[in-house]
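>> received
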Amino acid sequence: MAAAAAASVPAGTFPSFMAEGTLLCRRGEYGKALTCFNNALKLRAGDKQCLVARSKCYLKLGDTENSLKDAEASLQNDKTFSKGLYQKAETLYTMGDFEFALVFYHRGYRLRPELQKFRLGIEKSQEAIVNCIGSPSSVKLENKEDLCFISRQAESKKANQKLQDKLTKDQKWTRKQEPVRNPKTERQLLGELYADKAYLEKLLRDEDLMESSTKQGIKVADLVLSGISYLDTRSEFWQQQKPIYARVRERKLRQQRWMRDKKQKPAEVGRYVVKSMEDIDMLLTGDCPEESCKKAERVLKTIQGWSDDEVPNKNELIGNLHSCIGNAQLEMGQMEAALQSHKMDLEFARQNDLLDAVSRALDNIGRVYARIGKFQQAIDTWEEKIPMAKSSLEKTWLFHEIGQCYLELNKAEAAQNYGQKSLQSADEEGDVEWQLHATVLVAQAQVKLKDYRSAILNFEKALEKAKLIHNEDAQKAIISVSGLLQRGEAWGSISKLAVTIV
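>> returned
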């Protein structure tokens, strides 16, 4: 029994399965990603983040039923979980339930109005509803005795389900007679998929092929029919979402707007900017700095071509894009280019009195200087940023980095002073991890000052902090450092181990 239970538990950790599944999703390998999320849920059943991730996979694979189940399960214990609300709304929209999708987009928007995706979801649901039934002002209700039309949609769905049943011998592999849709209309709805449907229908006429089976024992006929059924379902959904007459009308209106005014609306510009910035950030965090840099450069060129009327915060956006380009260049190891990009960001920020942007640029310039070993320039840059720091946590990081630079310059007293400032800010914030880093920095400076007694005491304090956050690597390194100090070892050996702690 115990062996069977152990075998059912996947070998791995929850974070590793989540990370692998997320990466596979980005690559479009949804089947493999689904396996990873299934394993993750075996280790941590009911995790709402994992349920949403698996729901996305199901949706990409066309399994809307399971996608909806996972989205609803993620909301079971927390009805205000924004990711779960959005995923449920997306699934309902894909299923063609535009009204219910609109309800959940609205719920998410009320909770998180700063998220653009909820607002865009509301807009597309409303558009789909209007495309299906027309605007409310154009609808006139009449009182008539014959209300049989109410059940027509349900009857249509039942007829479609019967197509998936096994065909009788008399029917062979020919499909049931249905109202034939205009090929031109179907081509417009399916687009590139129209050729795939035509190919599948051609296969149906090959009786020998339809009688055969795959190595797994699945009949080829069942596979072909399921493919055609899926395309029919998608075609019906797209017809509901945006009927042909709505597409034609929309195309005409778009042409009229283009002829009347080639300028983009502020809302369209806003959506483009928000989507582009999200893509740039996602590419950078997804270990694709080169693609992130190229995307940012393209967007920068586009925005530079717009007028100030079209983009009221144009200079702020340009500075932000220079910052994104600089961060990507830093990740690619292009230090000089990164430095120039962040200096451009600083120049735009100062010209337009954008204090937050000035603080961001100084932060990034300091990082580049520290990375290339110009520690004094990094110190000067970061010390200019100190008055702009808004939170204790930001000050903690800033004081710690300045202290590290002073330590690299063999200015131990200044390093100790900034280490103590960093520790004070970390105490105010209540952040144990940064308390650990600051305490180690103070101890390192005291070793250089040959104040070994104080250094040992601070390393012992750091050891307690490491135990609190369960950082085993830091614990081992601190114990080794303390042992070296007690034996009077040289600074070089101690500094190498101290790096492991930080």
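>> Confidence is low (pLDDT under 50) at residues 1-5, 145-156, 162-180, 496-500.
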